[in-house]
Design brief:
There is one protein chain. The protein is built from 12 helices and 5 strands. The chain is α/β, with parallel strands linked by helices. It has a 5-stranded parallel sheet with strand order 2-3-4-1-5, covered by helices on one side. Helix 5 links the parallel strand 3 and strand 4. Helix 7 packs antiparallel against helix 8. The longest helix has 22 residues. It binds zinc ion (ZN). Zinc ion binds next to helix 3.
């Protein structure tokens, strides 16, 4: 479980795990502080929990295996709206919020029983946008969850914060969280680079720190998914998001898109497995062997 990551304050871990065990989530949620990758992975877990197709009565959510959970992990679930800027702008506009959120707010979900509106960088929402969302956050339709990921909670209006259930993931400027984030990015970048160079020994060496560390493996696999996604869009001119532009470029030069998609699928499986408490040694073996197989397809 992502919410067992030791860098998360114990209070938050206990509260969120109790909520997930009961199978019922609050409707307007903020994950604040911690590192960006921690916010992303915890956010994904809550999205899976909200959209999971197999929430047996009284059972733990998310299951991590159903088609809805898988689509959330792959970033392809139609009922998960990741609210983002359009038209080449860097920040979300009022018009974006209108078209992406408000216009469809009362429409039924497509596949799941619920819908999630995710604001991955809530720090950059203008006061005007926050005010436009205020009423919806206060009384969302019964099948809607709002989820705000936010580095510094102070960047949100107090009127907004007071309407959200907040789960702090760590200090806003937690040095430990930041160092952990950098560590994840470095390991994932090294693995991507070894893959691009068809360096099987390097790959083995770089995956070693993940032995017996399921949380680290989940986050490295998630970061690798981002790097491969960047590699796949490299030619489109779209903004790269993984923070590993060079490695993404190397991958895009070394592999056909079909092979890269296989890497992405493999990493999503690993993330799901690590989040679902699969055996660590088996996971690590799978991690390495999946990449070793793809390596044979290098151009
Ligand atoms: Zn599920």
């Amino acid at each position: 479980m992502v919410f067992e990551d030791r860098s998360i304050p114990e209070d938050t871990r206990r509260t969120v795990n109790a909520v997930l065990a009961r199978g019922r989530l609050p409707q307007s949620v903020m994950l604040s502080g911690g590192s960006q990758s921690l916010r992303e992975s915890c956010g994904k877990e809550l999205c899976m929990a909200a959209l999971c197709a197999e929430p047996a009565e009284g059972a733990q959510i998310p299951c991590g295996r159903c088609h809805c959970c898988r689509k959330v992990l792959a970033g392809t679930h139609p009922d998960l709206v990741r609210v983002g800027p359009t038209g080449g702008r860097k920040t979300v506009s009022v018009a974006d919020v209108r078209t992406q959120v408000l216009e469809g707010l009362y429409k039924s979900p497509t596949e799941a029983a619920n819908k999630v509106y995710l604001f991955p960088e809530a720090d950059f929402l203008s006061p005007q946008i926050q005010n436009a969302l205020l009423k919806s956050i206060e009384e969302p339709p019964a099948d809607v969850m709002f989820l705000f990921l936010c580095d510094q909670r102070e960047s949100l209006l107090t009127t907004v914060i007071s309407r959200l259930t907040e789960y702090p993931l760590g200090d806003t400027f937690s040095a430990a969280g930041r160092a952990e984030d950098e560590n994840v990015t470095r390991i994932a970048g090294d693995i991507a680079s070894a893959l691009a160079k068809e360096d099987e020994y390097g790959l083995m060496l770089k995956t070693a720190p993940m032995a017996k560390n399921r949380a680290l493996m989940a986050r490295v696999a998630a970061k690798l998914t981002e790097i491969v996604r960047d590699a796949l869009i490299e030619h489109s001119g779209a903004r790269m998001l993984s923070g590993c532009d060079r490695e993404a470029l190397l991958l895009s030069m070394s592999y056909d898109p079909a092979a890269l998609i296989r890497v992405k699928d493999a990493m999503e499986q690993i993330t799901a497995g690590a989040n679902a408490n699969a055996n660590e040694n088996l996971l690590l073996t799978r991690f390495s062997s999946l990449l070793a197989v793809v390596m044979k397809e290098r151009k």
